[in-house]
């Protein structure tokens, strides 16, 4: 046995080393390109927000400073948009949890006719372009006088959250260990107690992931707020459009970008767990 | 005596069975009613805000023609296809969408394969950085790319260090700008789906293929590729739908003309105040994406069926 492996290892080990070098060589090249292509643009925004002056051939700002932060945050449109954004986001996430979590329990655990078709119908919202759909809804809202109201923006953003908030918890409820629940029922626990102490802890990470994704996603949802909210209810992403497009001062856009990015850092903290738990792919039905 | 007892026993048993059956049926009915009540709120929302508006849009575009009340007319649609601007915008959207998907797959496929076989620290870094765009708000990524790609932007500054700045032609406000933006935003999701597909293929399968003398290329062609067809299909469909109807990136990074369908619709609705024309454009965009979307839903429905079978 020992001599056999020894006889095989030398050329094998060389071949393996060669393939390792080739593989990690590719990895290194990919890493460098990704750093330039992905970190590059993000860091440019970061640098601009702390720049007082940045002339062309310089790789870094020619004068650093934070005076633009005060100027940006004291702009009237931004001071109005910040609370609007927060209120809309919280309302949407709360409402979405209220209607979606019980529904996803039903989709996963209760038997009723049409369950499969109803569950798949949420995917169709993903199978149509958002923007076209919002155009259709805007026409309806126009007649209901919901254009330019907070209620209109909340409704359209709520629609946007349904897929994630139903599919992620549904797949989590489906994965709950039924034997554990039955055992608890057998020893005399009440159904409520079983749900709170056995079922909930098992789906809790998925529910938290769905909530977190919805919270952040809604905070920077743009299309719906743009088509429904304008001109009276303006969220941060919506007021960014004019600031990006025809604004000689790049710092405004950079600082607003960072404000918008702030909730995302929350996601980044949990990124590893979100990705490893497969919650994102579950939310897309994969 | 015994015979009579047996009959009585059998009747008892029958009665008990019927009782159990009835109770089961009752329980099932209660379960179904509970189910319908729980799924009613989101269902009402999706019907009222999704299916009805989409249907109404379609109906309006075929009935509210110049001919007046009642008649069904496809004049708006023939009008769309007769307009050279609309046609070139539609074609442009197809080109942008397909080009960005081809580039996206060319980037993500090799990286996903690499991530499947490497457990090194480099692989961890590659994954982390590739996932970053997922956490960047759409409008921020557009802004970041503008500052990066524009003339005298970050990329040109970096090229300048190597004396290459004079060769740089900015893609900002050109069709390539849209493609770059869509690829940038699409990388995390595409990579996620492809790696999820690849991770379903066990090491044992690949090892045994290698043992019988399969080369890397053969392993890729005959084992990996067929097994991740579904993941690749899902990635293709969702990217197609997302890119075809995209708004922010084409609006901010693309040229003034031709426009992608997203920008065109918004212009028609809010710029020219022509809701019916905008709806016609929306319905055409829907129809194209729905065709692609059906592939996606079919793929998911199959896997969902598989999950049902496992969990009962």
Structure commentary:
The complex is a heterodimer of chains A (286) and B (312). By secondary structure, chain A is mostly helical. Chain A folds into 2 domains: 2-49, no CATH class; 69-283, MetI-like fold (Orthogonal Bundle), CATH 1.10.3720.10. In chain A, 78% of the residues lie in helices and 2% in strands. Chain A has 13 helices and 2 strands. Chain A has a two-stranded antiparallel ribbon. In chain A, helix 3 packs antiparallel against helix 8 and helix 6 (150-174) runs antiparallel to helix 9. The longest helix of chain A has 48 residues, at 2-49. The relative contact order of chain A is 0.11. Mean pLDDT of chain A is 86; it is low at 1-5. In chain B, helix 10 (229-244) runs antiparallel to helix 13 (275-311). With 312 residues, chain B is mainly α. Chain B has helices at residues 2-63, 75-82, 84-117, 121-131, 138-149, 154-161, 175-199, 203-211, 216-227, 229-244, 248-253, 261-271, 275-311. The interface between A and B is large, with 99 and 109 residues.
Q: Over the alpha carbons, how many angstroms does the gyration radius of chain A reach?
A: 25 Å
Overall average pLDDT of chain B: 87
Return the CATH class of the largest domain in chain A: Mainly Alpha
Structural class of chain B: mainly alpha
The number of helical runs of chain A is 13
Q: What is the assigned CATH homologous superfamily of the largest domain in chain A?
A: MetI-like
Helical content band of chain B: over 70%
Estimate what percentage of residues of chain A fall within beta strands.
under 5%
Tally the beta strands of chain A. Answer: 2
